[in-house]
Amino acid sequence: DSQPPVPGDGSSAELNVDVDQIEGLPTLPTVYAQVEELCADPNVEAGELAKIIETDPSITLKLLKLSNSAFFGFTREIKSIGDAVSLLGNETVKNAVLSISVFEATKDMDESAGIDRKAFWQHATAVGSIVRFIAKKMNIQREECFTAGILHDVGKIVLDGLFADFYSGALKAVAEQKVSLFEAEESAIGLTHTKLGHELAESWGIPGGLAQAILYHHRPKSSEGDAELASLVHIGDAYARNLEFGSGGDPYVPVIQPFAFSHLGISGNDMTGWEEEMKQVVEKDMAFLSAIA
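User: That's the sequence. What structure does it adopt?
Assistant: Structure tokens below.
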């Protein structure tokens, strides 16, 4: 009731919300929290993990489809979740379950201010793919790279689905003022997808590095805890937009902060040299979306 009235013409209105008080906020399937808890033990048995995952038929089906897709590229068929856990490893399975869980949790929001959901997930997948690609090139050992890309803009989906009346003001500002959606959110509604996404991630029990990447992917230098992942997502976001995979909600390619390049020890020239290979990898990784959608 404390929310301000929404202007009838779709212009700006400050959106003051407390995440704990939001009704209809997506919740993750309970299986994710159980998987996260089990994976805290490095000695957890594959069978134990598989048994928990199999309690959720939808996630089981999608994880099997994903395990058999070009995304992982196994040459033989994976017929069970136990098989998938043994081949992929606990961390990879945990991150796959998280990505599938977030997709499941946000897919049924009926309202929309105008974000193209299909293009949104194509963009998120491309960012994940590019983040994983750069990490591989730079020998950065982080299993959660792809997931960071998938989750980085989750706040947009929630703002679009739960606060469509307010969010239409931000989308209108993008069109009229020729600003990025991030800037439009700040000026039009006073709540950014990064802030809401971060609070959501914390309420879902998502690990700190991923939550930090959601919060700081536009400003990686501000990240106190994990500038590495935030920098990877920052660069991945810009290149996914530059290569025109899907849509992040506006047509603009952000300028990459020099900090992100220097923190990771790469340059714009490196990225240009990798571009063709990167495009092929992103196209292959779109199999992720086909498997979970």
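Confidence is low (pLDDT under 50) at residues 1-9.
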